[in-house]
Amino acid sequence: MEVIKTDFILNTVRRMENDQSKEFSFGDKKSLVEKLAIAFINPKDFDKLNLSSKPNLKISSNFGIIIVKGIADEDVPEGTVLMPISIWSNQITGVENSELRYKNMRVDVDITEEKINDLNSLINKIKEA
Amino acid sequence: MKRSVCSGCSLLCDDIMVKSDGIYIDEVFGACLKGKEKFDQVTSQNRILSPLIRKDDTLQKASWDEALQRTVDLIKKSKKPLIYGLSNSSCEAQLKGIELAKLINGFIDSNASICQGKVLDNAVNSGITLTTITEIINKADLILLWGSNAAESIPRLLNKVLFSRGKFRMTGREIKTLIIIDPVKTASFNTMGVRDVALRITPGKDIELIKVLKEECCAADSIPSEGVAGLDKDDMKRLLQHLSGAEYGVIFVGQGLLTPQKNSNLINELLELVQMINIKQERGRITLAMMGGHFNMNGFDHVALSMYGKRGNLHFKDNQILETDENIISKIENEDFDCSIFIGTDPISHFPMSLSSKLAKKPIILIDNRNSATLQLASIVLPTTITGIECSGLAYRLDHIPIELKKIINPPSKIPTDEEILNQIIQKLKSDGGN
Amino acid sequence: MELYKYLPKTNCKLCGKTCMAFALDLLQGKVKADDCPPLLEPKYKKQYETLKELLGSEEGVEKELRINVDTDLCDGCGICVTICPVNARYCPPSLSGKAPDYPPEKHQLFQVKGGKCELLELKYCRRIEAEGRERECRVCETYCPREAVKIEYV
Lengths: 129, 435, 154
Description:
The complex is a heterotrimer of chains A (129), B (435) and C (154).
Chain A: E1 6-13, H1 29-36, E2 38-41, H2 43-48, E3 56-60, E4 65-72, E5 80-84, E6 94-96, E7 99-101, E8 105-112, H3 119-128
Parallel strand pairs in A: 1-5, 2-4
Antiparallel strand pairs in A: 1-8, 3-4, 3-8, 6-7
Chain B: E1 3-4, E2 16-20, E3 25-29, H1 33-40, E4 52-55, E5 58-61, H2 64-77, E6 81-85, H3 91-103, E7 107-110, H4 117-126, H5 133-139, E8 142-146, H6 150-153, H7 156-161, E9 177-181, E10 197-199, H8 206-218, H9 233-245, E11 248-253, H10 255-258, H11 266-280, E12 285-290, H12 299-308, E13 314-317, E14 320-321, H13 328-333, E15 339-343, H14 347-350, H15 353-361, E16 364-368, H16 373-377, E17 380-383, E18 393-396, E19 402-405, H17 418-432
Parallel strand pairs in B: 6-7, 6-15, 8-9, 8-11, 9-10, 11-12, 15-16, 16-17
Antiparallel strand pairs in B: 1-2, 2-3, 4-5, 4-17, 7-13, 13-14, 18-19
Chain C: H1 2-5, H2 19-27, H3 45-61, E1 65-69, H4 79-83, H5 85-90, E2 110-113, E3 116-119, H6 126-129, H7 139-143, E4 149-153
Antiparallel strand pairs in C: 1-4, 2-3
């Protein structure tokens, strides 16, 4: 099958559902995945990527790779991926000139059948890196 | 029912009402969902109620004496300790944090330095016109949200600044203009009326917009020649008209402006633009307001400034402050630390992977009230109270006004406050000093 | 102004007002066609019947006002509490964007409880109480950032 790979701009944001004081205060590891391991893209991109055929998005930047659930949101402009700030989105953010880079980053977006990374695997990854 | 202060975010609403018998919180009136959830944290299942120590790679319950002793031992072994966080603590705790840093020759910084503190950093170059919430309510006729989604980050902000009826703005919403510059159509866009201006900018092009605005401001007839950054000519014209015609305009600086674009300093450019408009404009002025997530984001800067005459990070060596260009990011990036103390923050999930993996290699002491990604990697966890609900203290609002937080209920199982924990560590370090 | 056409248009003021004012009140259901004495006279019989028919059909359409607040969407920002003109009149704190006092004033429409908006008393809503253009108020629906407030007629 043809591999579809597209250039996107990644923006990480704080939404009502994932503000600083809330993130880990409620829910368990499973509900955290539902709440935070997500990425919003424009419905047109959603169709272009043929996302409904495969469940998840693989987003890769210069700093890392993460697999999250893709959600269509018409408020997001085309060519942009929106992710809530969390341990998931921070797998692909990084540091440049001693400044955090977490907005307007170039990323590659691809569809995948691989499973969404869970919290424990990310923590282990951080531990072992 | 008395009115009390909400510590949900840096707006520190002083008008919420809490129904409580001093033990439990029955109901909260007037607070937004974010504030309400802060109160819900008191009984949250992820609350930490006893000190934890890592033994055989798992966190196990420990006594306070043991946990404190382990903390002190760790700190004494450390040559270059790092203290970070404190934006969810009272100013009193921040003062103790600085005292601890001084005692252990540590580097201390707060969450503000990677967030809204950047605005103040640049104020040195171009000056800054700040304002207060009350001034905005009474005078403002132009509210500009630039790269910030106020409706979700500080839910009650628009309610207070845009929909209120102030002394000189009695007709309320009708007389106030809202401009939003954001690439994404956020929830804040829904609060717009017919006269308001919605600008969907191309991501990462804010710098171009500011530069064009600056040029146009200097021009004799300020009508832009062409559109820029995904905005068309009409948009530009309306934006310029509003900016230069406002009697009292406020720009809310959001996270979208705090990241550098194309190696140029956005905030600096914006401050210069504001200054240019204010010089040119005769009948009004433009001011800036900052938005913080953590409720006492501005407090640390004020405490550090009043104690040591330096805003932001402090690096101590033999009771002296070292002049340093370093910040928390460069410290971690260069692995210039051997032990880290985090107070009321979750850096493992908030920092990029490259930084959190470096943090994980060194022992972590966590002082916090809830489960977090940092807790999963911490060596010692000391539980603490929720400031503003279970203990009182001073906090600085987003417009740099000090607000006194009141205790509403007693903390569970006699958990100490941030201030008390830091003080106990200091006292223990001092008394053990001879060994 | 459909209704005005079928009134006697004599401005006799037997009902206490001009025919135009009577037509307006008729539209809002404050008076009935029977309240106009000349209209009951035989020479206006045809007009009276048409009027009855018009009003009758409108009464049939008349639906009950509902304001629905979707508590799943609502984030308790309190914009509806502040912007509501009825709240502004009876709860002075809401003028400056503050939460109204508790217990709520009897006219108060909205309050924020437990981080969610709650509808208290619909009776005093402008869509029921007010006259003329003020009756067309729907600010709570227009400005809700979460689109949680919906005005409906059921």
